[in-house]
Structure formats: structure tokens, C-alpha cells
UniProtKB/TrEMBL annotation:
Residue ranges of the TM segments: 7-24
Molecular function GO labels: glycosyltransferase activity
Pfam families recorded: HPAT
Primary subcellular site in the record, as a coarse category: membrane
PANTHER family: HYDROXYPROLINE O-ARABINOSYLTRANSFERASE RDN1, PEPTIDYL SERINE ALPHA-GALACTOSYLTRANSFERASE
GO cellular component: membrane
Name of this chain's protein: Hydroxyproline O-arabinosyltransferase-like domain-containing protein
Taxonomic lineage from the root: Eukaryota, Viridiplantae, Streptophyta, Embryophyta, Tracheophyta
Domain of life: Eukaryota
Localization terms from the record: Membrane
Protein species of origin: Trifolium subterraneum (Subterranean clover)
Residue ranges annotated for the Hydroxyproline O-arabinosyltransferase-like domain, each copy included: 54-328, 364-652
Topology within the bilayer: Single-pass membrane protein
Sorted UniProt keywords: Glycosyltransferase, Membrane, Transferase, Transmembrane, Transmembrane helix
Length: 657
């Protein structure tokens, strides 16, 4: 393990200027030493027996989202392995969490280290080549060939060894287009290597793995470090990296469209071998695809980021293509879950109305979305100060904390506040409404983060924990705060555009926003509804700056989720006068008073505290206390802000725009 880390770190320190030749020589040396990594003739591994067994390997994390997919995949591997026509050998889940998880006894697993902190550049897929490199170095692999699979693969027909005598097999992904990106490709595949058409339109999966993993690691890191390449290739970057690495080794692939199918685009199963269920399947009740719009019937793996899908998913309506029906009806999902349950391996409970909460005292993760603007930074610093003060108090169920920074890059608070950097929406997609980045940020974070807690509290930068916060969820319902200005019933005409009558009465939509409450696994729906609402002029005009709050309320209702409405969740000065036993101060409103202690809302007061007065830099230390007669809630707010600013280092110098 140490030798692999040394190699990778050396490549990084030298800026990846080590040539491919060195990496090839390293593999040849392994061969000379008797550690045969396979034969290599400059054009690809010589495959001497197309019926020879291959090892099935899948990289994975210990997150619930990865685990339930791996369990389904492994079930169907076992069902298909010994069928006539199959050349499957053994199976390994390569777990790059660095620690064991609860599936070690269920699925053959090899634990490797994740990339050192920060080296994944907030792109978790970079761990994939690094994980394979460690596994290939350390594992005892009986088979000569390897199939790299993904957790969202299901073996639908027995899979033979598809490689020809001189070429491995690969699947041609329609979105991997080397020739259309020649300018960028030439940074990594120089002209002297040959035409760009030498780079096959493949990803890293599925196909029979060649011994090019060190080059794959190298090219992946170099691509991620190049801003133009990173922007152009996005989530497909490490797939392009594998295609380039293959070409640098002179490898051409037999492109097999029958390697897999991808519902809903591929309509028939036929003789294809793998279902890749990466895309959401949304249909109306007429069986028509509504892609980009939440369907009246849907199956989307991203709906289950925090726990597994329910048992007995409803069958799609008539008219839906065979591939989608096969995914659900032919016991690919449903039967597997029943069988796992019979075997005592319960994939988790879900009653169709919300996550079953079995322990209301269980810890919850505190997450806040933020930007790198000074206005957001100073609020986050105050919030995090009071989180730390409250976290371990009696009665608190707070777990860890994450600031989800949707600026696409780190800022000066990275070492002060635990932060996960995600991308903002692509330019123009926020429609000038920056809050649309919030659901998009949460979706990215939930996809890639390692979250120890089972529950999540979505907080805002302008929240201060004023009393220790327990887990307020009841046994069957998450908790939410009833915002007085979220009025679904008074906007029924608009609501019906997004919550059709067949879903139930509009009163099913709770008067909540997206914060604060314990987050359910509805982030993809929240993103979808937010964008649809913003694109509808009538809705956009009616809901204004609270549009994405309505979107979350609708998304919750579409998932059948009802909330326990807790007015004690938070207070909002100056309207709420007393703190009492409430848990969070939400200082979103300006507090304006005359010197008699009378509220002058709508008119600048002789004394005031308004967060919007500090858009470009933090408020000063020791803000003057309000005059006598001002409610306790406002006095408490100012005292808590003053305490935080007095104790946070570099308060007035660190965060200024």
C-alpha cells in the first residue's frame, strides 16, 4: 500500500510530467519479477480464450446509496454466474472507504484507501482509478480478465467473455465524443500518438479491464487539474481519462452495443447482457415518457440517496417499454428485495409516506448551503460557533456539520468550518435566482458525501442555535416548521400544475419550506420542481423569492411525505417576541425600533439590526444593545451575535467581499 501511495504522490508533486513509458516499464518489471499483470503487445492484451472466466469487480463507497445498489447487483451476479453461456468468475466489491462496513459478510469485499483528503478535487469518481490501482497491486486474482462493473448494473442475461483474440470489449457511450473534443484531447493524446479517432468512445465500464490503471490515474488527475478539460467533460471526466489511457497504450476495443441497455432510452432487453439503471424513468399514466418532468409513475435511483427503495415498487402503466417493465416487473428489483428479506438481509423499511424513523433520539447531521460571498461567510461563522456551543449540551441530538459551498471552489473558511465544495448550476440555469442552487447543491452533496448520521437537518446561514436541538421527528414523520407565508391551499390553481388532482387534495402539501427540518430523500424531485416552477411565469411571479420553498413542499407531497409541524422549531424576530423553549433564531427580518422600544417595521429605526446592512463585510463587534422595551428575542439575538464575534478569530478581516 505504501508503495502505491508513494507513486501517486510522486506523480502529483511532479505535476504529472512522468511519461506513459515509465508506467509501462513498471508493469513490464512486474512481469519480469513474476508478478504477471497480463500480456501486452502494444495493441492490447492478447486474449487467447474467449470463453475464459473473468473476474467481476465493482468500486463502491459505504454510503447507503452505494450499498443498496451493490446488494441488488450482487444478487443478480449470483443468479447469473452459473447459467449456461456465462463466463463469470469470482466477484469483488472494491470498497474505497478505508474501513469495513456492514456488508463485509454478505458481499466479497476488498477494502482500499480513498484518495488523501483534498486530492479528489471534490470529484468522488477520481477515487475509482485509485481504488483499482490499489486492488490490482494487492489482491490475489485468479482470473486473467476483469470486468469493471458499476453498482447500478444488473445482469439480465448470462454474460460471456466478449473479448476477441486481440481486443478487449467496450460499450460505446453516446456522450463520449473524442473527435468532437479534439482540441482538448490533444493535451493528453498528442498528435505523434496518432489520430484522435484512436481514442474509443468508451468509459471505464463495462469492459474487460486492461493493465493501464496507473495511466488512468495519471490522466484523470491531469484532466481534473486542467480547467478547460474539467469544465468540458464534467461528470464524464474519468471516463474520458480511461479512453485516453487505453489509446496511449495502443488498445482498441471491440465496441459492443449489446453489452448493456440503459432505460428509458433503450426500449427492449433482447439479448443484451446488463441493465444500467443510471437514468430516471418518468412516465404519465398513458405510458408516455415525461423525461425532465416528474412522472405520475417513476423509478429513479436518486430518489433513494439515503436509504434503499421500498419493497413492491408499483408496476409502470401500460405502454411503458419492455426495458423499464423488466427492471421492475421481472423481479429485477422487487423479487430481489423479497428474497433478501427472507434471508434476513432487510434492505430497510419505507412505508410510502416517508422514512420510518425508529429512534427519535438518533443523531442528525447539520448541513447548510452557502456561497463564498462575505454576506454568506459571516453568517456561517456565527452559525457554526453556536453549533459547536450547543452540540454536546444535554438534550442535543446534533451530529456532524457540513457547509455545502456551491461556488465550485474552496474559500478562506475551509480550515475553520467543515466544508464540501460542489458546483453551482451551469451558467444561466439559475434564471437570476441564486436560491435555485440550493437544491442542486444538496443533490450533489448527497450523491458523493459520506454521511454517518441517518437524518439530516437542512439549516440556513442565518440560523442560530439558541437551545439544544433534539431530533424532533416522530416515529413516522419528519419535522418541519410551518411558515406563515407558504399557503398551498390559497394557491390551488398554481399548485395543480405541479401537484395534480389525482395525487390528492392540495392540503396534502404542508406549509413548509426546505428548512429547517429533517431532510427526506427527495432532492432530485426538489431540483426538478424548482426548475419547472421557475420556468412557469405565473408561478414565478406568484411565489417570488420563496419559490424553492414551495418546490420542496410540493416535492415532499409527491413522495407522500407528511411532516410533524413544530412551531417551536424556530423563532423569527421581530415577530416572535420570546425565546422560551424554541430551538433556532432565524434572523431573516430586519429589526427596527425607535428609542422608546417601539417597532418601526418598514421604516429605518433609530436602533436597528438587519443582516442586509452587512452585504459586503461582517457586522462590527459589540453591536449596541437595543433600547428598553424591545422584545427578548431581539435582545437575545444581538447578545449571541456579539458573543460569537468576540470569540471568532480574525472576525473583521477574514471575510470581506
Amino acid at each position: 500500500m505504501g508503495r502505491i501511495k508513494s507513486l501517486l504522490m510522486l506523480l502529483m508533486v511532479l505535476g504529472f510530467f512522468i511519461g506513459t513509458y515509465n508506467l509501462v516499464c513498471m508493469m513490464i518489471e512486474h512481469n519480469k519479477a513474476g508478478n504477471d499483470l497480463g500480456s501486452f503487445d502494444g495493441k492490447g492484451m492478447e486474449i487467447v480464450n474467449t470463453k475464459e472466466k473473468f473476474h467481476v469487480a465493482v468500486t463502491a463507497t459505504d454510503a447507503a446509496y452505494s450499498q443498496w445498489q451493490c446488494r441488488i447487483m450482487y444478487y443478480w451476479y449470483k443468479k447469473s454466474k452459473d447459467m449456461p453461456g456465462s463466463a463469470m468468475g469470482k466477484f469483488t466489491r472494491i470498497l474505497y472507504s478505508g474501513t469495513d462496513d456492514q456488508l463485509m459478510n454478505e458481499i466479497p469485499t476488498f477494502v482500499v484507501d480513498p484518495l488523501p483528503e483534498g486530492l479528489d478535487r471534490v470529484y468522488i469518481a477520481l477515487n475509482k482509478p485509485w481504488a483499482f490501482l490499489q486492488w490490482l497491486e494487492e489482491a490475489q486474482i485468479d482470473e486473467e480478465y476483469i470486468l469493471m462493473a458499476e453498482p447500478d448494473h444488473i445482469f439480465v442475461n448470462p454474460l460471456p467473455n466478449l473479448a476477441s483474440r486481440n481486443e478487449p470489449a467496450g460499450y460505446p457511450f453516446f456522450y463520449i465524443k473524442p473527435a468532437e473534443n479534439e482540441k482538448i484531447m490533444r493535451k493528453f493524446y498528442p498528435k505523434e500518438n496518432g489520430p484522435v479517432t484512436n481514442v474509443d468512445p468508451i468509459g471505464n465500464s463495462p469492459y474487460l479491464l486492461e493493465e493501464i490503471t496507473p495511466t488512468w490515474v495519471n490522466v484523470s488527475m491531469r484532466m481534473k487539474d486542467d480547467p478547460e478539460t474539467d469544465k468540458a467533460f464534467g461528470l464524464g471526466l474519468e471516463m474520458y481519462a480511461y479512453a485516453v489511457a487505453s489509446a496511449l497504450h495502443g488498445i482498441k476495443h471491440t465496441l459492443r452495443k449489446d453489452f448493456m441497455l440503459q432505460p428509458p432510452w433503450d426500449l427492449d432487453v433482447g439479448k443484451k447482457f446488463i441493465i444500467h439503471f443510471t437514468y430516471g424513468c418518468d412516465y404519465n399514466l398513458k405510458g408516455q415518457l415525461t423525461y425532465g418532468k416528474i412522472g405520475e409513475w417513476r423509478f429513479d435511483k436518486r430518489s433513494y440517496l439515503m436509504h434503499p427503495p421500498p419493497k413492491n415498487i408499483s408496476l409502470p402503466p401500460p405502454g411503458v417499454p419492455e426495458s423499464v417493465i423488466f427492471l421492475v416487473e421481472q423481479k429485477v428489483v422487487v423479487y430481489m428485495m423479497i428474497e433478501h428479506n427472507k434471508a434476513g438481509n432487510d434492505l430497510g423499511s419505507f412505508d410510502g409516506k416517508g422514512m420510518e424513523i425508529i429512534n427519535p433520539k438518533a443523531k442528525f447531521h447539520v448541513a447548510v448551503t452557502a456561497t463564498d460571498a462575505a454576506y454568506s461567510q459571516w453568517q456561517c461563522r456565527i452559525m457554526y460557533y453556536w453549533y459547536k456551543k450547543s452540540k454536546d449540551m444535554p438534550g442535543s441530538a446534533m451530529g456532524k456539520f457540513t457547509r455545502i459551498l456551491h461556488s465550485g471552489r474552496g474559500d478562506q473558511l475551509m480550515n475553520e468550518i467543515p466544508t464540501s465544495v460542489v458546483d453551482p448550476l451551469p451558467e444561466g440555469l439559475d434564471r437570476g435566482y441564486i436560491v435555485l442552487n440550493r437544491p442542486w447543491a444538496f443533490l450533489q452533496w448527497l450523491e458523493k458525501a459520506q454521511i454517518d448520521e441517518e437524518y439530516i437537518l437542512m439549516a440556513e446561514p442565518d440560523h442560530i442555535f439558541v437551545n439544544p436541538l433534539p431530533n424532533l421527528a416522530s416515529e413516522n414523520e419528519p419535522a418541519g416548521y410551518p411558515f406563515f407565508y407558504i399557503k398551498p391551499a390559497e394557491n390551488e390553481k398554481i399548485m395543480r400544475k405541479f401537484y395534480p388532482e389525482e395525487n390528492g387534495p392540495v392540503t396534502d402539501v404542508d406549509p413548509i419550506g426546505n428548512s429547517p427540518y429533517l431532510l427526506e430523500e427527495i432532492a432530485p424531485t426538489w431540483v426538478n420542481v424548482s426548475l419547472r416552477m421557475k420556468d412557469d411565469p405565473e408561478t414565478d411571479k406568484a411565489f417570488g423569492w420563496v419559490l424553492e420553498m414551495y418546490a420542496y413542499a410540493v416535492a415532499s407531497a409527491l413522495h407522500g411525505i407528511k411532516h410533524t409541524l413544530r412551531k417551536d422549531f424556530m423563532l423569527q424576530p421581530p415577530w416572535d417576541l420570546d425565546v422560551g423553549k424554541k430551538f433556532i433564531i432565524h434572523f431573516t427580518y430586519g429589526c427596527d425600533y425607535n428609542l422608546k422600544g417601539q417597532l418601526t417595521y418598514g421604516k429605518i429605526g433609530e436602533w436597528r439590526f438587519d443582516k442586509r446592512s452587512y452585504l459586503m463585510g461582517p457586522p462590527p463587534k459589540n453591536i449596541s444593545l437595543p433600547p428598553p422595551g424591545v422584545p427578548e428575542s431581539v435582545v437575545r439575538l444581538v447578545k449571541m451575535v456579539n458573543e460569537a464575534t468576540a470569540n471568532i478569530p480574525n472576525w473583521e478581516s477574514l471575510n470581506r467581499s
